[in-house]
Write a structure and sequence with these properties.
The structure is a single chain. The protein is an alpha/beta fold. It is 23% helix and 29% strand. It is globular.
């Protein structure tokens, strides 16, 4: 059975209990990271993930709370002994931002792992990664910059979906269709983002089994979920370090 690790669950501005939203999926010794807005390697280590098991990093979009830690990610895996190449996957604007972040530092004398840059089409159903363990596809969200949500399917039949930063949109409903677990942002009812109730509506329309909310602002508490639970009962706020089987 595959595992989802919530490495971080906060919005760009959150409280002391949360870092930026970053995820990891793990199955049969393979790990795929999703976003690196903070120290993603430290959060992976805290969750018991071996950095050398990381097969890919997916960068969903160019904003700093999702891509700003890329240089630190590369340096950390190198210092921890990484030798083999690392796949870095995302839509073109996200990869350009990751490159800029890394190029801001003089790493010429360092033997960083080789990067396999893989560009994802910004379109529904675009393939992100396919191998013997994973089939990961994408769909565009609605955000001030281009972004993608992800659908993760495992060889064992598990399915989880992640909205990334987006307003409620039909594309993410389709991405999450029949998922055992939907991880949806719930920053609030702002342009480019979603409320708790918006996320619950997506989960209900998609026929998901369980909903976990991330990209959370400061001060969230369980009492704020009453309206969302009236739409979709199996909803909860994610917490940094939590794990879910799927």
């Amino acid at each position: 059975m595959a595992v989802l690790h919530l490495l971080g669950t906060g919005a760009a501005a959150s409280d002391a209990s949360r870092t930026t939203t970053m995820l990891a999926v793990e199955d049969a010794g393979s790990v795929v990271l999703i976003d690196c807005g903070g120290d993603v390697v430290q959060r992976a280590l805290a969750c018991g993930i071996d950095p050398d098991a990381i097969d890919a990093l997916v960068v969903t979009h160019e904003h700093p709370d999702h891509a700003g830690g890329f240089a630190l990610f590369m340096v950390r895996i190198w210092l921890l002994g990484r030798k083999r190449p690392i796949a870095v996957i995302g839509i073109a604007p996200a990869l350009r931002q990751a490159r800029r972040v890394l190029e801001a530092f003089d790493t010429g004398g360092w033997d960083l792992p080789a990067i396999e840059w893989r560009t994802v089409e910004h379109a529904p159903g675009a393939e992100v990664l396919r191998d013997g363990r994973w089939r990961i596809t994408a769909a565009p969200g609605v955000h001030p910059v281009p972004t993608i949500g992800l659908r993760v399917e495992t060889a064992g039949g598990g399915v989880m979906a992640y909205s990334c930063d987006t307003e409620r949109t039909a594309a993410i409903v389709e991405l999450a269709r029949g998922a055992e677990l939907l991880v949806h942002e719930a920053t609030g009812a702002f342009p480019g983002h979603a409320s708790n109730e918006d996320a619950a509506q997506v989960a209900r329309e998609a026929g998901a089994r369980r909903l976990v909310l991330v990209h959370l602002p400061p001060g969230v508490h369980d009492g704020q979920l009453a309206a969302a639970r009236a739409i979709f009962p199996l909803v909860e706020f994610g917490e940094d370090g939590a794990r879910y089987d799927f």
